[in-house]
Design a protein that fits this description.
Chain B: InterPro entries: BtrH_N (IPR026935), DUF4872 (IPR032369). Chain B: It comes from Thiopseudomonas denitrificans. Chain B: It holds the Pfam family DUF4872. Chain B: This is Butirosin biosynthesis protein H-like. The complex is a heterodimer of chains A (139) and B (330). Chain A folds into two domains: 36 residues, no CATH class; 83 residues, 434 Repressor (Amino-terminal Domain). Chain A has seven helices and two strands, in the order ββααααααα. Chain A is elongated, with a radius of gyration of 21 Å. Chain A starts with 19 loop residues before the first strand and ends in a 7-residue tail after the last helix. Chain B has two domains: 164 residues, Alpha-Beta Complex (Cathepsin B, Chain A); 148 residues, no CATH class. Chain B has a six-stranded antiparallel β-sheet with strand order 3-8-4-5-6-7, with helices on both faces. Chain B has a two-stranded antiparallel ribbon with strand order 1-2. By secondary structure, chain B is an alpha+beta fold. Classes of the chains: A mainly alpha (139), B alpha+beta (330). At the A-B interface, β1, β2, α1 and α3 of A face α8, α9 and α10 of B.
Chain lengths: 139, 330
Amino acid sequence: MKLDEVPQDADGSKYGGHQKLLYAVDDKGEYHEAQSAGWEAENYATDLALQELEQQAQQARADWQAGATSVLPYLMYRYRMDELALAQCTGLWRWRIRRHFRPAVFAALPQKILLRYAQAFSLPLEQLTACQQGYRDDL
Amino acid sequence: MTFNHQQSAHCETGVMSSLLTHAGLPMSEPMAFGLASGLAFAYLPLVKLGGMPLIAYRMPPKHIIKTLSKRLGCRLHVQTFGNEAQGRAALDRALDEGRLVGMQSSVFWLPYFPPEMRFHFNAHNLLAYGREGDEYLLSDPVFEQPVRCAADDLQRARFAKGALAPKGLLYWLDDVPQEQDWPALVRKSILGTTRILDGLPLPWIGVRGIRHLAGKIGKLDAQGHKYNRLYLTHIVRMQEEIGTGGAGFRFMYASFLQEAGRLIGDERLCELSTRLTATGDQWRQFASLCVQHGRSKQNPPPLSQLSDSLLQIADSEQQLVAGLKGWLKD
């Protein structure tokens, strides 16, 4: 990559206004550091991943508010996790986590288990307790 | 402490470059990367990231820190903590002693990261160089400027749970020798890289791994556009998004070959650098193709074109390794 080919696609950049460092060569083939404001191809890839997570979170939120699932799937996607990541963060088996997605099972969870979820999402335990008791507005 | 923050492409190499330079052994990021034999390729179907296989363009986390310290003959002090309060106290003590401290942390819980960049990746590396009130003064290598972070936020990031959990890891370098046998170091590190890229009898690592991935892409179901799109852009993210200096560390390694060639006065390494730059350009084109495929619903570039492009990359990397091996023999 030549220095003048270093992409500067700031529009739609996913660097949050920051610049990223790349290595590129000048006309004589000498390597230099070069800052990039974003690369259109990379922006698309990041954006797609973010959209996917956002859609999953919205779907899970709707399911939670309709009473079809517990609040956990919504929180899981909102905090950009999947079942595997949540299992690793809480130290619970995946099948247990899936069980906790059922509203009735979630409502009966002891504080000890709830605390593990609270720590994984870095939320106050009271918020999860409130959800157990039927709180369905936004968190 | 007088400390100069320097922006880097990648966190681990950036931290090592800063630690060594601060200790009186000036070292650029590409040199730190190359001398630690950081370059690799791995396709790991059993390690999942968001349901996708892990695709890595470098050696696993901590490899660079450990290998580089060992090769340069520095004493690497490392410490992890079962007790979070002790982890915090140890960081404060080290800073009070005037040390520049390396730390491992999660990316997701660091508030100064823009929301678009916050994913659950626990093997991020950064430096602390001071403390002011309830804030830590941090040098995060991938940022342009030093940053500040509230103590509770940093604590959460240092003790994030999950895969590659940092457990509050702190590290610093003691006794950094200023005299180095550069020709021997360059040789040893290049030998290591040739073995990783083309020398392991495993189908997922190095040049074989690239061919393996090409096979996987060729076998994708052309009807499953939604999955294919996520799969292909996942490769692009592994290659570009996660601070690689462009083309999955290929440009950074090419820069190392050039700098190393100048340092030990061997023009042939500079020629190999030029060849690797061309391979890096192929990687960038491959990334563009992946995105084009995801984008166009009507006429996407056929999957066979993507997989052929990867096979060509595998050939170029194999030739490069052959060139490096030839250089080692002389």
